[in-house]
Amino acid sequence: EFRRVLFRSNASVAQWLYGSGLIDRPYIAAQGTRIGRKGKVHVRRSAEGKIWIAGDTRTLVTGAFAGPSAF
Questions:
Q1: In terms of Cα–Cα distance, which of 14, 5, 10 is closest to 50?
Q2: Could you read off the pLDDT of 19-65 as tens digits, one per residue?
Q3: Which of 6, 40, 41, 65 is the most buried (most CB within 10 A)?
Q4: In this structure, what DSSP letter does residue 18 have?
Q5: Is the Cα dihedral 6, 26, 37, 62 positive or negative?
Q6: pTM for the full predicted model
Q7: Positive or negative CA dihedral for 61, 13, 26, 34?
Q8: Contact criterion met (CB below 8 Å) for 22 and 58
């Protein structure tokens, strides 16, 4: 069973890996394995250099934001 992962940290690592030339193709990152919370993240870079992160998702909370009009 795979669990939720933090996509934002994987995006930062991917930016560094691709930017430094350490990797040049799509990869799958595993996260949380040592603490029994396995997760997988699919990572790729587009031809334009954008990082794309993908994986299974599940909606836990839905709603709308009602805040100041400055947003």
A1: 14
A2: 999 999 999 988 777 777 777 889 999 999 999 988 776 677 888 87
A3: 41
A4: H
A5: positive
A6: 0.65
A7: negative
A8: no
